[in-house]
Write a structure and sequence with these properties.
Elements (H helix, E strand, L loop, with lengths): L4 H9 L9 H4 L1 H33 L4 H23 L3 H17 L22 H11 L2 H22 L4 H79 L3 H19 L16 H14 L5 E5 L7 H22 L5 E6 L4 E8 L14 H13 L3 E7 L2 E9 L2
Parallel strand pairs: 1-2
Antiparallel strand pairs: 2-3, 3-5, 4-5
Amino acid sequence: MPADPLSIRDAWSKIPSPGSTETEFERFTGKRMERILAIVVAIGSSALGAQALFAAVNTLSQADVVHIVMVVVVFVPLAAMLVACLVGRGVRTFSGLFAVVYLLALAAWPTVVDPADKSAGDQPWIFFLVNVGVVAAMLAFPLRLQFAWAAVMPFVYGYVRLVQGEFSREFWVTTAFDVSFTLILGVVIISLGWMFRSVAAGVDEARGQAVASYSTAAAAAAAEEERVAMSALMHDSVLAALIAAERAEGERAEELAVAMAREALTRLANTEAAVSQEGTDEPVGIAQIVVELRRSLSELGADAIVEERGGIGMIPGRAARALVLAARQAIGNAVSHANSRGLHIIVEACGDQGISVTVSDTGPGFDITAIGADRLGIRASIFARMAGVAGTADIRSDEQGTTVVLGWERS
């Protein structure tokens, strides 16, 4: 069943526009990308952290108190960072804390390591966390500081290892390999993070531009629709009432002019109502349309036959209202320009699929292409009104008369 227009309007009003304060909605893709990066970092860092922890625990039996403190200082912030990444809260804070604490712990490593341990092939447990420190910087710091961290961290580790090995030749070879590997891997990690964030920012920007373009187009369309509706209202009711008042001769004509003026004032007063222009969507049958057209004939002081054909023919109220108003305008044109000569109206139901209204006269006719853009009787009151409810309007006119065919069918 059709969606409620009020529900659609309410849902659309909740979509933020670019430049609003609801930045969490404007950065929807960016925030999701940050969440994905945090989860991936948590998974990868958990594996490296577990490997480093097992290696550290194996050395605690022969380590002193300082080494135990070092393990606690490194792994407590790491655990806090992993939890923050998983729950999605405080990611930047705890990631930045671990990045700083780990760099300081790495720089202090020569004071913790056993001076007798000078085996170049045995990498200390703290080495496994070098790139974890890099990804922590990626989550916490600006881009320039991220690349600085990725470049500094491997060299700090390399210097610490050389100090541990007293700059021996054996340590130079293995340390150079470790430094180059961690440096390349760290730069790749930072670059991937920057690329993913740039793509997400591009998506958010494109989305913002699309919403802005649609908002502008929707506003322009609404303004144009309101302008056409108001122009049609002025032409149908106000101008018609003024013409009727000017031509009123006799008590009956004056009463009709007063009634038309009252209706025009009522419609002007209700222009801000949601359904004042085209009615509701309650189904309307062919009989009601015939009644409305006969009332229009009476108000316009015209004498014509309204012929009813077909079955019941139910259509939405808005479409029926548009048909009646457009047909009223066609009748008014026939009265004004053809003096109601040969005026004939046919209302035909096309089963349950729609209704058509035909207004014809035998007047002198007119050239449709010669109608000026400022003449709203046909452009706004007939063509634009029927187009507004997805209906059709066709006008054929020559020296033998004019025929206006209005229709609405279910799609």
